[in-house]
Write a structure and sequence with these properties.
alpha+beta, four-stranded antiparallel β-sheet
Length: 82
């Protein structure tokens, strides 16, 4: 894995876990960040070749979609709050 990707992943995890009451969990073998038992960031698998993150963005969903390499997640995850 390229050095840049190895450096990015720990920084993403650190940023997610810096939120108040955030903690990590590993459901389905994937690393996630949770608050009150609810996932707010999917951080993927440590052994993955690429780095990606999926998160809930109830207030900035539409804005986030204006950036390159950003797309909605499947199964309705990460969309606007209902």
């Amino acid at each position: 894995m390229p050095r840049r990707r190895r450096q990015l992943r720990p920084r993403l995890v650190e940023a997610a876990l810096a939120y108040p009451d955030a903690y990590e969990d590993f459901p389905w073998g994937e690393q996630v960040a949770k608050v009150d038992k609810k996932i707010f960031a999917f951080l993927g698998r440590a052994e993955a070749e690429s780095v990606g993150v999926a998160m809930r963005l109830p207030d900035s969903h539409e804005f986030a979609l204006t950036f390159a390499n950003v797309s909605p997640t499947g199964y309705g995850l990460g969309g606007q709050a209902g």
